[in-house]
Design a protein that fits this description.
The complex is a heterodimer. Chain A is an alpha+beta fold. Chain A is 21% helix and 32% strand. Chain A folds into 3 domains: 141 residues, Probable tRNA modification gtpase trme, domain 1 (Gyrase A, domain 2); 125 residues, Aminomethyltransferase beta-barrel domains (Alpha-Beta Plaits); 83 residues, Aminomethyltransferase beta-barrel domains (Elongation Factor Tu (Ef-tu), domain 3, Beta Barrel), CATH 2.40.30. A 6-stranded mixed sheet of chain A has the order 10-11-12-9-3-13. In chain A, helix 2 packs across helix 7. In chain B, 21% of the residues lie in helices and 35% in strands. Chain B is built from 4 helices and 9 strands. The chains are: A alpha+beta, B alpha+beta. Chains A and B meet through helix 2 and helix 7 of A and strand 4 and strand 6 of B.
């Protein structure tokens, strides 16, 4: 199947985007021009404001009188405790308590939630969701809004200043809070749902608008000072922030407890609940030692090879040469000017590992690259608290 | 002698039985900013098609294959600390390594500047 385009396709072409198929959508790895390139775009996000097209992500609206009850049967969440316009990070689990996808849930009103899903997983997610919906017998609507809306992320220390020039309400949002508003564009005011969240470790926003106004919104944000940024910068940013990526740190064989995501499960649901995979997840919380893997952060040691990235699936050994696991995401950190990685390693190794001290070797093209266990995130989060 | 080019986007400048090798400006544009360059060892012998070097961008690693056979006589040590030199000057200061040619006739198999420029236009 040929990849689909997002409502910002013409915008990407105008800015010289180097387009690739990502999760079934044509999206820019990076843009051309004076501010283009993975490293300059990454820098724009860490020092000013960067604009990302994330319209490939799935947007599913669940509405109806039984919406709370349904979400409680679907996700390890307490929907009744989510305030209007609050966002929650959660995940969809299979019966084994392993991860089908991770997602963001926003309560829009008493009877409505928005779920934002990973592009490559949204078809699978929606099958699970629709099956659960049918089984629940609840009178609910599940609307897929991928086509009629666009989603952009504006991230960086100047994101608030840039966005508030178009959407004044953005300035008063707390972290993980949203609001329905309008954006002032040259041709008039357009619908904008603005949330204070992101995937870069910086303060920032995600903005949903209608597909036909998306390009004008992106243009206005660039005019107000945002730098267009692509998937390459986004991946380096999220890795520095130690934010997991589905298909790398998470998949259908990995428990949230192995991926370092236990924090996202409300305490009241750790002994069980109505949600998918509740029984297996409760078992995992009761006997975490039975889970073989743990997430670990790694940073290259000083030396000639410090900038050489060890990438996904690079095998890892301890100092004595015993296999301990593999890298799940590895790249060059422009902020730290050296290679960093997230890895899944054996529980025993992780339990004994000490940040800044324990050494690990990553094999790259026959070379053993020295890494040290790192404290996470690699680059501190700048979320508004 | 004038510069020759390969279909793998490398350039080679021969001078007698010595030659300097790098990646083309087109190649560096495609790769984006380099963060690491792994060079061959001085004294290493290379045959056409051998992996001679690896250039790494933030996103991916790309192999640089030997376009001619020979013995590595010098490597561009400045790239260890400044791989971005390749982006700034791919066909000048950003050269990768020098070889003593084992078989200078191999150069005849490569493209001249005009042929390479056509090759790039046709492949993009």
């Amino acid at each position: 199947m040929s990849p689909r385009t997002t409502p910002l396709h013409a915008f990407h072409e105008r800015h010289g985007g180097k387009l690739v198929d990502f999760g079934g959508y044509l999206l820019p790895v990076q843009y051309a021009g004076d501010h283009g390139g993975i490293i300059p775009e990454h820098k724009a996000c860490r020092t000013a404001a960067a604009l990302f097209d994330v319209s490939h992500m799935g947007r599913s609206r669940i509405s109806g009188a039984g919406a709370n009850e349904f979400l409680a049967h679907l996700l390890p969440l307490q929907p009744e405790a989510i305030k209007p316009n609050a966002l929650k990070y959660s995940f969809l689990l299979n019966e084994q308590g392993k991860m089908i996808d991770d997602l963001i849930v926003t309560r829009l009103d008493d009877q409505q939630f928005m779920l934002v899903l990973n592009a490559a997983r949204k078809d699978t997610d929606r099958k699970v969701l629709d099956a659960a919906l049918q089984q629940s017998g609840l009178e609910l609507r599940h609307e897929v809004q991928d086509e009629e809306t666009a989603l952009v992320a504006l991230q960086g220390p100047k994101a608030q200043e840039v966005l508030a020039s178009l959407v004044p309400a953005a300035a008063s949002l707390a972290f993980m809070q949203g609001t329905e508003s309008t954006a002032k564009l040259p041709h008039g005011e357009v619908y904008a749902y603005v949330s204070r969240c992101g995937y870069t470790g910086e303060d920032g926003f995600e903005i949903t608008t209608t597909a036909n106004h998306a390009a004008a919104l992106a243009d206005a944000l660039v005019t107000a000072g945002a730098t267009p940024a692509g998937l390459g910068a986004r991946d380096a940013l999220r890795l520095e922030a130690a934010l997991p990526l589905y298909g790398h740190e998470m998949d259908e064989t990995i428990s949230p407890l192995e991926a370092g995501l236990a924090w996202a499960v409300p305490k009241a649901l750790r002994q069980g609940g109505a949600f998918l995979g509740a029984e297996a997840l409760a078992q995992a919380f009761q006997a975490p030692d039975a889970l073989p893997l743990r997430r670990l952060g790694l940073i290259a040691e000083d030396g000639k090879l410090a900038r050489l990235p060890a990438r996904e699936n690079a095998p890892l050994t301890d100092k004595s040469g015993s296999a301990i696991g593999r890298i799940t995401s590895g790249s060059f950190s422009p902020t730290l000017n050296r290679a960093i990685a997230l890895a899944l390693v054996s529980r025993d190794f992780a339990a004994a590992a000490e940040p800044e001290t324990t050494q690990v070797l990553a094999e790259v093209r026959g070379k053993q690259l020295p890494f040290k266990v790192a404290s996470l995130p690699f680059v501190p989060h700048q979320y508004l608290r | 002698m004038s510069k020759k080019y390969s279909k793998e986007h490398e350039w080679i400048q021969a001078d007698g039985d010595s030659a300097t090798i790098g990646i083309t400006n087109h190649a560096q544009e495609q790769l984006g900013e380099l963060v690491f360059v792994q060079l061959p060892e001085v004294g290493q012998t290379l045959s056409v098609g051998d992996e001679a070097a690896t250039v790494e961008s933030v996103k991916a690693a790309s192999e640089v294959y030997a376009v001619v056979s020979g013995t590595v006589s010098e490597i561009n040590e400045t790239l260890n600390d400044a791989p971005e030199t390749v982006n700034a000057s791919a066909e000048g200061e950003g050269w990768l390594y020098k070889v003593t040619l084992a078989n200078p006739q191999e150069l005849d198999e490569l493209m001249d500047a005009d042929a390479y420029s056509k090759f790039v236009q046709e492949s993009t």
